[in-house]
Every structure is written in structure tokens, then in C-alpha cells.
Amino acid sequence: MENFDVIVIGGGPAGLSAAISAAQVGMKTVVIERGDYPGTKNVMGGILYTKATDMVVPEFWKEAPLERPIIEQRIAMLNGDESIMAAYRDPAWASEPYNAHSILRVKFDRWLALQAEKAGVMIITETLVENLLYKGDNVVGVRTGRAEGDLGAKVVILAEGVNNFLAVKAGLAKPLKAESVAITVKEIIALPKETIEDRFCLDEGQGATIELYGDSTAGMMGVGFIYTNKDSISIGVGAILAPLIHNNWTPNDLLEYLKSKPYVKRLLHGGETKEYLSHLIPEGGYTQVPKLHRQGLLVVGDTAMLMNSLNREGSNLAMISGKIAGEVAAESIKADDVSDQAMMVYETRLRDSFVLKDLHHYRHMGKFFENNPHLLRAYPKIFSNAVKLYLTADGTPKKERQKEIMKMVLQNRSIGGLTKDIYGAWRALL
Amino acid sequence: MHFVVCLKQVPDTSEVRIDPITNTLMREGVPSIINPYDMHGLEEAIHLKEKLGGKVTIVCMGPPQAKEALKKAMSFGADRAVLLSDRAFGGSDSLATAYILSSAIQKIHETEPIDLVFTGKEAIDGDTAQTGPGIAQRLGFPQLTYTIKVRELTDTTVTVERKTESGRQVVQAQLPALLTVEKELNDLSYATLPNMMKAAVYEPEMWNFNSLPFDVRKMGLKGSPTSVSRIFAPPGRIGGEIMDGMKDPVATAASVVQKIFQQNIIMYKPQAKGGNQ
Fold first, then answer.
1. Complex ipTM > 0.90
2. CB-based contact (8 Å) between B28 and chain A?
3. Mean pLDDT across chain A, nearest whole number?
């Protein structure tokens, strides 16, 4: 049996970041990935944040396969065929130091794996880790599905993704629940560069994002998104699994529903669907974060439920958690102490970083929306009606119109209800 | 025993489409794989090595990216891989390719005498089935084509079953010999983890035009008498008719039945023997 300092299970952003940071300080490191190559099994909406990635691979934007730097973020609230929109745009985001880029994971992850190999990481693909190996309570290696498939390690970093089979087996996490996991479906729709730039009011090479709330998911807890790539558009929708099951919708129903909205249809018009992807997203939030460590083991990325859906941040949390885990693994190995106590440094550093601080900040959010399903149905309608009344010029004096709007609001939601909702949202989000 | 396996990296033809207008292959984004027939040759060589001892050397001609295919092939337990890569080789047809590969194999043979050479019966991108026999001819090795079973391998002979149009043939040849193989030859096995790790850090040997006393007139486009005059896709099937079954199921069903008989999909009162088709 061959022995390594660090074995990383899973070749996504979290796992590869962990491997890079461990290998950079001389750890003999291997990544075991089940796909043909890192990227083939990996899916996200498609936004990569610059700061976190820069911390793992400095100045990555000079070489990495990126699609477009994001200079505009739109938020839309849909109600039937109506929509209300807000946008922030700053062309400065098209140049260094950037804020975010759209990416296609199958290309980006493969590139990141190449950076890991350059740092000295061995990458073993098409291989599934079936079990962890223990000596007493200590994790001392992994068992893969291949013949002669055991490998030894001083520290194992678990980056298996949202499907947390090994974390459950290791007694760190609970099996996923339909309430705390979202399913996302996404299509990549090819369109000429110029068409994309015209439709989204972009200069050459610039990118935009749109998040669509409200009726984008037919009132179920979720969000739709549209991201511009170089010569395609990523359009997708994610929704918590439980309401989807309850309403008997398939994920594809959700996507088709979003694509049938007039505004969305116009943006995609004439495009050809190139890829169809689907993936689970861990939406459990702070309260569902599993135990992050034990003797000889660290848990990172999606497996650790590190996902901030409100700000659609995930890959950056994954990469930072991976980087910290790789560093802590290396420090512990050098100090010849991989006890649970030593591994706990990882959790401490994660708590000191934005990763767990952000999750902690939004810790009430999941329950708030779960307990108040009316919010996603009532408010898009109220807002939409209010704006429509306000903007309709039909000879009604404005004073009367304002009264009319207030009346409409109160018809849809009582004063008590409004107060409760605002207070609840305040508590959950601020 | 020294086994040499010839591999070719090919586009996964199950994912290649032909541009209906230009009639060229749309290769963009199509993954490359090892020619499936060659994989069975490799499997057999590894299996024989494990049984009888010896060494497996892989020889491949292709662009530098073919290194990936060689690294993958190494993970099944081969010992050495040589990639013949040079601009001068580009555009070679099966005649020129056989010349280049046989020259390389000859050089390997001179330092480490070869007992058996394996090639796939054909590559799935060209389907010519000429390169294997071409190599054997140039090396002066007997060729046993369309092999579906290696019955016996002794120090001096190999006995195989061949697939022919009329059945099976059992033939024997003196070593060294060349086999071109069918998929029935064996079942592919999974690479072991230690072999995968060896392959992950293995760098294939790169040979170019200057590695051997090649004759430039026998390679590339100039050395290739074959010219492809035209490529075309078989005409696509006409799309079927979709009827809405929700609005009026009864009428739709009646219309379906009517069409079935009108278009002779099922014949009403078919005539006995020799009836119209």
C-alpha cells in the first residue's frame, strides 16, 4: 500500500484548492476523482469569484479558461408575464482586479487540476473512494473501488461534493434531506458573441448576470439565473427539493416554466441548446453544517454545506475552505499531530473567515422561508401590482392612485401580516 | 516475451457529426478515445505478460495530445510507451502510417527483440483495416488478422482463432508475428490502483522525424497515394409526424389507424405467399 501525506477525495474547486495548498508546502498529495477528469461531473450556475480564486492560484485570470468578467448584475422579480428589475453596473469590473467571471466548469476544473499537477499533486481519475480506512479512531487512508486499491494517508480531506456518502459513513454528517438540498437544472444555449453583447448591452468581452425571483420558480423556494458566457448563455433554475416533490414538478418542468417567460424567451431567442446539466446544491445553511473534522480527517466545500445561496456564493467558500484545510493538514503533519484537537484549527480558521461568518449571519434564513411559503407568492404579486398602478397613466389623480395602491397591498396582506413579514425578513437577512 | 501494441487515438465516433453543408467532420468538442479494437490488443498483451512474464511496449503515432491516450494505456499495466509525433507525419494515409510505425517497431525490435505485435483490426475513424497488415508486411512478420482468440503461445509459435465470413479458422504462425484483433478477443479489465499511479507520473517517450532514418518521401501527404475525394453523410431520416393526443383522443386514434394502413405499415388482408411487400 502506497502512503501519502494528504489524500483529497474529489477533484472540484474545494478538493483541488486543498491539494494545491498542501502540495505547495511539500506534502505528498493525491487527489482521487471519480470522473474521466476533474470537471466532468462538476456543475454550478457558473460564477467564479476573483478574490477567493486568486488566493489559490494568484493571477489566475491571465491563463484560466474564463468566459466573461461580470460587469452587471440584474435582479428581476417575476409575476406572471410581468417583471420588476434592478441592476448594478460598473464597467471597471471588466478589468483587474475584477469581481467575478462566468465560467464553464468542465473547462475550468480541468485547468485547475493542471495547476494542481504543476504544484506536484498526483491526480487519479475514474476512481471511486468507497470507504475510509481506520486505525482505532484515526482515519489513516482510503479504500478505492480498484484492485489493490488501498492508499494510506496522514490526513484525508473529504471534498466529495454535495452527495456526502463518506461523510455520513464517517459519522460526521447526516444523510441529505429534501428540505436542505436544492436541485438545479441548467442549459447551455449557444448564441453568437455579438448577439449576446447586443441583448445584454455589453461591450466586447463583458458579461452580465440576472437572478430571477418570484414567479421564476412558480412560487417554490428557489431562484432562476441567466449568465452570459463567451458564445453561449447559461440558464438555469434551482429549487428546494421538498416543495418540488410536494407539488409534483420535475426539475425540467421548472426550467421550461422559466424559459417560457416572455422576458427570458426573448433573451434566448434563436439559441441552440448545447448542454443540459443538473446537480444538487447543499442549502442546509449554518444549522446543517456537519462536524468538520475528526482525527486525520477534514471536510470541505459542498460536503461541509458551505453554500451561501442568497449571494449565490459557493465556489469561493469551497476554495477557501479547501485552502485552509490543505494548510491545516500540512501544519499538523509537520507537527506530527493529526489528532482531532489539531484538526480543529481548521474549524477555528473557518469561523474567523467570511465562510462561516456569512453562513452564521444567514442562519435563520432557511427556516424563515420554509415557515413562510406565502412570501414568495404574495410579494411578487403585491410589488408588481403596485408598480403597475403607479406607472399606469389613465387619468387617475396621483393621490387617489396612492390610496388605491395601499388598499391593494392591504387586500393582499394585513397590517399585522406585513409587520410580521418585515420583522421576520429583518431578522433572517440583516 | 516482448509484446508491442499499436494504439491510435481517435475521435469518439459515437459523438462525431458531419456538417450537412460542408460535409466535413465536426470535431470540435468531441472527446478523443483510444481506438476500441486497440484496447483489446492491449488487454491481451497485458494478460499474456501477466501469465508468461515479459514486457509490453506501446507504440502510437499522433499529435502531442495523444500523450494522454498513452498515459491512459500505461495505466492498464504496460511498461513503456513511445509516441511518434512530428509535423512531417501529418496527413499520412494507411500506407505511410504503416511505414512510419513499422520503422519504429523495427528499431525497438533491434534492441529488444519482439515476439508479438498487436493492432486493432481497424480504427473506428477510418475503417480501412490496412495499417496492421501493412506493418506486418514491412517487418516481414506473418500476419494473423481478425483474431478472436489466442489459443496457444509457445516460445516459437502462436496459435489463434480467426473470424472469417464463413466461420472460424484456427491458424498457427512462427514468432515473431502480428495479430490484428476483434473485440471478441477478450473482456477489458480495470486498471489496478498501483498501475494507475505509475501511469499518472509516467512520461511517454517522444520520437520525431529525426529519431529514425526515415525517408521523407514515404510519409505525410506526399507519401500517401490515397486521396479522399468526397465525404458525405447518409441522408437524414425525415422527421415523423406528431399528433396531439390530448385534444380529441378518439379522432387521433382513428387517424393513426388510418395512416398505418394507408402507408402499408401494417397490411390489411395481406396476400398469402409472395404477396406484395
1. no
2. no
3. 95
